[in-house]
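Sequence design from tokenized structure. All designs in this work follow the same two-part layout: the structure record, then the generated sequence. An example of the structure record is given first.
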């Protein structure tokens, strides 16, 4: 079994959400014992936001020093600030408004009501990444990146059969004509996602079984974008039993 890519199966979506929330708390607390600031990339979606709510509900929530965590987003819908469709707003409601994270450590993506165009917004977020990187680097040192996966295998706002998957000129991409509404979005590029030490993909449901199986079998990321995800240290797919039908048995791990 690869030490870099693993699948951990949970009996239900609720069990998955609870387990990943607990694992996140333990992981961040452990990293904070080793370095002053932990960089985490958040995702949206039912499971991703459910994990954040699980962190908030955990009795161990405050074993994390929330003043020493910096938050980023893997993608965002190009809608006004405060809109219910924004991943940022969902994260605020689920967790961020309940913990004492310094405002300057919450690095939200620009919104459509800020008076800038989509391309400029993507460039602005790329500049923010660079400003928070170590000297000579383009990106912060991401410790954990959360991702979901759509039934078509998309991750962040990187969809199948689209040129954005191969985009390497910028760490942040403006997305137009998204096959999933809203049509305009901002997304981290695949190389940016893969710069993270750990990438955790959390997904549930029978409609994820086929794309997950294809991703793990090594199909082209152009067909299933999740196939192109590879964290620097480890890539873990946390899935429920419904999503696990096509998972290669040699990738299943009892623990991580």
């Amino acid at each position: 079994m690869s030490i870099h890519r693993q699948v951990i199966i949970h009996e239900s979506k609720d069990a998955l959400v609870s387990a990943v929330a607990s694992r996140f708390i333990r992981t961040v607390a452990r990293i904070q014992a080793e370095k002053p600031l932990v960089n985490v990339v958040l995702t949206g979606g039912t499971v991703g936001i459910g994990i954040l709510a699980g962190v908030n509900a955990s009795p161990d929530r405050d074993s994390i020093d929330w003043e020493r965590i910096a938050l980023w987003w893997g993608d965002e819908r190009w809608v006004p600030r405060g809109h219910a469709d924004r991943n940022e707003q969902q994260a605020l409601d689920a967790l961020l408004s309940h913990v004492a994270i310094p405002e300057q450590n919450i690095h939200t993506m620009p919104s459509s009501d800020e008076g800038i165009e989509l391309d400029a917004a993507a460039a602005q977020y790329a500049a923010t990444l660079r400003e928070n990187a170590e000297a000579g680097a383009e990106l912060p040192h991401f410790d954990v990146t959360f991702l979901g996966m759509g039934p078509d295998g998309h991750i962040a706002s990187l969809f199948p059969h689209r040129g954005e998957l191969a985009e390497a000129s910028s760490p942040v991409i403006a997305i137009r004509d998204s096959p999933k509404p809203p049509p305009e979005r901002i997304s981290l590029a695949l190389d940016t996602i893969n710069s993270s030490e750990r990438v955790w993909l959390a997904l549930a449901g029978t409609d994820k079984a086929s794309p997950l199986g294809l991703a793990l079998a090594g199909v082209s990321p152009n067909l299933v974008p999740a196939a192109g995800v590879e964290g620097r240290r480890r890539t873990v797919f946390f899935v429920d039993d419904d999503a696990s039908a096509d998972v290669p048995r040699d990738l299943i791990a009892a623990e991580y």
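Strands lie at 5-10, 38-42, 69-73, 75-77, 142-147, 172-175, 185-188, 198-203, 234-240. We note this feature because it recurs in several other targets discussed in the main text.
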